[in-house]
Design goal:
This protein has about 180 residues and is α/β, with parallel strands linked by helices. The chain is built from 7 helices and 8 strands, in the order βαββαβαβαβααββα. The strands form 2 sheets. Strands 3, 4, 5, 6, 7 and 8 form a 6-stranded mixed beta sheet that branches.
């Protein structure tokens, strides 16, 4: 039987209209765009509305740029939101899996571009080939299975950056690994 999925409105009428009333729970929602275009703001609006509906929230701040006062002014209840920062990609991925199994609500991963694996963190001269894009397809498949099987309604919001490469083509960090 088909499930009726709860939708969390963004509070932005045009986006909510395009999404059929808001972002669906039990889904992975990617927001990508150029730097400073409002990705985190959109995610914060979803968190604020989810909290108003009684859901919990977890913000995984891989960038270290969480704007506490700004998001509080938009209605995010910081006292009722879990916040993690300064971890490896593996640790953030573990946090996502634990949250889906034990809690419900909205998880925001801000952002894919800032994720580093434990191996990348330990290298002095940095990685020659990024390792996170190799990890993402498996992680996302496990997350989607977890979202579908969970007793709790949960939503994962991935924030991601777009950049223009040397050929002028628009690229998303993590490439096609996030599309699948």
């Amino acid at each position: 039987p088909h499930r009726t999925l709860t939708r969390i409105p963004t509070g932005l009428e045009g986006i909510d209209s395009l999404l059929g009333g808001g972002v669906m729970m039990r889904r992975i929602f990617q927001v990508s765009g150029r730097y400073s275009c409002g990705k985190s703001t959109l995610a914060a609006l979803v968190v604020a509305e989810a909290q108003r509906q009684g859901f919990e929230a977890l913000w995984l701040d891989a960038e270290g740029r969480f704007a506490f006062d700004y998001f509080a002014s938009m209605g995010v209840n910081l006292e009722k939101m879990d916040y993690e920062s300064g971890k490896s990609a593996e640790a953030y991925f573990g946090d996502v899996h634990k949250w889906i199994e034990k809690k419900g609500g909205v998880i925001v991963l801000d952002s894919v571009a800032a994720l580093l694996t434990e191996n990348e963190i330990s290298k002095d001269d940095g990685p020659s080939v990024p390792e996170v894009p190799k990890m993402l397809p498996n992680f996302l498949n496990k997350v989607q299975n977890g979202l579908n099987a969970s007793k709790h309604e949960c939503l994962l919001i991935f924030l991601n950056h777009e950049k223009v490469d040397f050929t002028g083509a628009l690229k998303v960090i993590g490439g096609r690994s996030i599309e699948h």
